[in-house]
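Worked Example 4.2. Read the sequence first, then its structure tokens.
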Amino acid sequence: MLRTLLIPFRVLINFTWAALTTAIVGLMVIVVGIFKLLLPFPPLTRFFSHLANSVFRIWGYCMSVTFQLTQRMDWHIEGDLNIHKKGWYLIMANHMSWVDILVLMHLTRRNVPMPRFFLKYQLLWVPIVGMGCWTLDMPFMRRYSKEKLQKKPHLQGKDIETTARSCAKFKHIPTTVVNFCEGTRFTPEKHAKKSSPYKHLLTPKAGGTAFALQIMGDQFEAILDITIVYPGNDDRPVVWHLLSGQLRDVYVDIKTLPITPELIGDYQNDPEFKASFQSWLNERWQQKDATIDRLKAKAEQDNR
């Protein structure tokens, strides 16, 4: 019945559901975080971290409902996430929309360790969401322009320190570390401004992925290279299509990559390794660009 409502009512229902469930789950996580802060004893800290993780998984199920609440949406998934909750994994994904986070929550809600996202520092001040993510030890990253780094060189490497601290915390609880390697959402304007060599992607930033592998490479069981495509949604923001009940298809390609010794090294101090890792990531992005072309062609064929 909800699928037959006019668009304004669908937007209201979807937004209310997403906001309300986020607020409730966020507050539950924060309550757990308060106990974790007040009782800083290792056994209790680990217990509260696992409890917060379980509460966070509830949010994954809630976000999964959002995709079907006012629309009939089809998932087209190639590859699989045949892994287990008690492992450690690294996800590399392209970034088209804020909906990407909900897609990853849908994919990981059952059999995957709950994801931790690298977030922009400004999100720390979003009511409930920021504090909830802080409780879950998600890293908040600051981005500095070249001009600012020239004026304040002591800020150089701050993101590296944040990555190191966060990954050190992830070692104590099964985690899927998520890195949107492009660092920001794709838009045609950003694509043109940055002179990206890829058709559908921005140039990836290698630092975050390399440092996560350097710190946790011996613990990660695999890299999950995930490509997300929303065919037919190039004219308007994907989040609008989701809220208005017009998101019909999501195409996802999942490739499981082994972690080889060549991917682990001192990215900051070893120029040879840095060049090698950047070359590897750029090659992955070339393949991801081709995958997007293939998925878009498949979507056109499916919709004929």
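Now turn to a second chain, presented in exactly the same format:
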Amino acid sequence: MAQLLDGLKGAFKVSELRTKLLFTLSMIFIFRVGAHIPVPGVDVDAFRELIGTAGIILGFFDVISGGAFKSFSVFAMSIIPYINASIIMQLLTVVIPHLERLAKEGEEGRKKITQYTRYFTVMLAFLQAIGMSVMMGNYGVLHNPGFISYAVIVFTLTAGTTLLMWIGEQITERGIGNGISLLIFAGIVSRLPSGIQNLYLQLEAGTINVLSLLILVVIGALVIAAVVAVQEGQRRIPVQYAKRVVGRRVYGGQTTHLPLKVNQAGVIPVIFASSLLMFPEQIARWFQGSAIAEFYVNYFGWNSPAHTLVYALLIIGFTYFYTAVIMNPVDMADNIKKYGGFIPGIRPGRPTAEYISRVMSRITLAGAVFLALIAILPNFVLLATRIPNIYFGGTALLIVVGVALDTMKQIESQLLMRSYQGFIK
């Protein structure tokens, strides 16, 4: 803790870094203020009761949005449409040749892809806002149901998501850390006080006992330790570079390594799988009362064994798919060969690419299984502790710890460049 405080003190001594930190905090403050501005025409109290009876799916969505969904504020949809749009655009980059060419054009190409992502985000937010307004009407939580009320809800929610997208991009460009990740981080952390208060009230009421609370604390500590270990874990493949003589200078000859992270995909597969499974669940709730909707909710609902199994398999599949999108063994092997490098015992070229692909497949399996276990952790925590409505589960911890580590590393690098002592000694 002393090292952390010394690092923060050193960060505020650097004017440029202090400006970035204050700008980041001001943007997060705007996000938290907007999370408490309700959308006009919605009965917020009735909507909160609806969330309390809807199960863990809406409760988890409320945690991600930092309570904005439960109060049905202008930021109720959070930044989820932007995340989905970014993931889909990354996947389309592999499929559509035009986007693939743009991705290889450098900074200008990335700017165009970013612009396409923004347009796609607005479109997804508009469609999701329409669905949420229809759900509001079906559940009878609107004061004056009608075209005007639906239009106000749709455009307010779409504008809120668009503003969050802009805030996230501004934090990334002018602040510290990844803006989108920090917004999700701030939303999750903001729910901690109410979560602790809820546990305290349950403990006072006798709903839970001290033993259950201790088990929850131990599980949380173990999960945090496991997340840190997997996030920082990597397989280092040794790479030897041959000596080259250019004029009178000798280049190369050193040994380095190629780091392959165990969890290369991060939390993206979990978010993508959650969004994919959340879509049919929402549709079923819009048509509540029909036989098909009741069958789906009863047998494939959020807490059912079938849903848990499909959820885990989708996470494993998306982890492999997304890792293959962002990591190309052929390009890595070509780059090693281009600069006169080779992996000891492996021939350059195609054998190197096949070797890297085999190693990536093995470590990706470990990372994928870990993500799947973390995602379905709340189900097992509920069985072990008997504490209801545990929304702050493994996925939330994975996001919080991952974002905290990345942001700390960025501050650390800024401090080290200016000869300041950082967080890590």
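Notes for the reader: The chain is about 70% helix and 5% strand. The longest helix spans residues 107-138.
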